[in-house]
Amino acid sequence: MSDLKLLITGCKGRMGQAILRAAEAQNVTVASTIDVGDALSPALAEADTVIDFTTHHFCDELLGECLKQNKSMVIGTTGHTNEQLAAIREAAKTLPIVFASNYSVGVNTLFWLTRKATELLGPDFDLEVIEMHHRMKKDSPSGTARTLVEILADVRGLEYDKDCRHGRFGDVGARTPKEIGVHAIRGGDVVGDHTVVFANVGERVELTHKASSRDTFANGSVRAARWLVGKPAGLYDMQDVLGLKG
Q1: Are 9 and 52 in contact, with CB atoms under 8 Å apart?
Q2: Which of 227, 172, 244, 246 is nearest to 26 (CA)?
Q3: Residue 1, pLDDT above cutoff 90
Q4: Nearest to residue 115, comparing CAs of 245, 6, 240, 238?
């Protein structure tokens, strides 16, 4: 086993179970686990790093305890409020934190390809993002879809809150050149499908990633925890972990 000791939150859930399998496969010690109703503080004291894929409602308590005990974090939850996002950025001034909307190696390759395609295709292509998840998913759009839109907006010099169009209904008028459409589909047991559409007159380019198992996210999160060992305080993402930046 490695020297790294993990705390896995939400250990009874589907992602928690997947992370436990991933830790075993990567020969990483799980020092403690918690689920709903369990005490956080003593469990965290046993570990070096926490991997959390539970709910953003747990964010405040977890951040506070990690700051108190000086523990590094891998955050995989989505749907945070602006205040919680600000708290995560503030905590990263003290702690090393990997915070990503998606821990799949394939999805992070999609992020990289999306940026490159947007740069190469230029402003004549209309931009749309389509995502589908299982019927139990609570937040919309998915964190991954939001990241894709943020990449598109960054390259185009646009703003997420101002230029993102969440679905369309009724007489909304013709599509504007600046808008980025985002469409969320829910149903069945879909783990996660994401497509970025670049549409121009006479041609269309589509980049798609489809996840069929939660294990891909779990494997990436344990990889991120291993990468964090010895890192200084800072806010990192999977692009850092995979060396896709720069």
Answers
A1: yes
A2: 227
A3: no
A4: 245
Three-class SS state of 59: helix
* 164-166 and 180-186 beta bridge pairing: parallel
| Residue 7 CB neighbours (<10 A) | 26
The model's pTM is 0.78
List active site positions: 133, 137
In whole angstroms, give the CA distance from residue 246 to residue 241.
12
Residues written for the chain: 246
Q: What is the mean pLDDT of the chain?
A: 95
Please give the structure tokens belonging to residue 92: 């990263």
Given a contact cutoff of 8 angstroms between Cβ atoms, the answer to whether 235 and 92 are in contact is: yes
- The pLDDT tens digits for 127-142 are 999 999 999 998 899 9
> How many helices (H) and strands (E) would you count in the chain?
9, 11
The 10 Å CB-count burial string (b at 16+, else e) for 105-130 is: bebbebbeebbebbeeeeeebbbbbb
Report the distance separating Cα 46 and Cα 229, nearest Å: 16
pLDDT grade, residue 70 (50/70/90)?
very high
